[in-house]
Amino acid sequence: DEALAMLGDAVSRITRAVEGLEEPFLQQPFPDPSYRLVFPSIRHFLTQVLVAHTAYHVGQVGAWRRAMGLPPMARGFE
Length: 78
Known about the structure:
Elements (H helix, E strand, L loop, with lengths): L1 H18 L3 H4 L15 H26 L11
């Protein structure tokens, strides 16, 4: 419960920060040229972080639980 509360707080803070970003900023090229093939703009990077990054870590938790012989999570990460 504590970890889910921390995740919820982090999601709320990130959501508030992203809601305040203006369109010209989101359209800027990603600052690190070596990643621009994957993230052409800041918008592309933020989309990956907001959608896929958390899902990646949720998958890691599921794999860790299986490796430890624990049952699947009884509730979601919503």
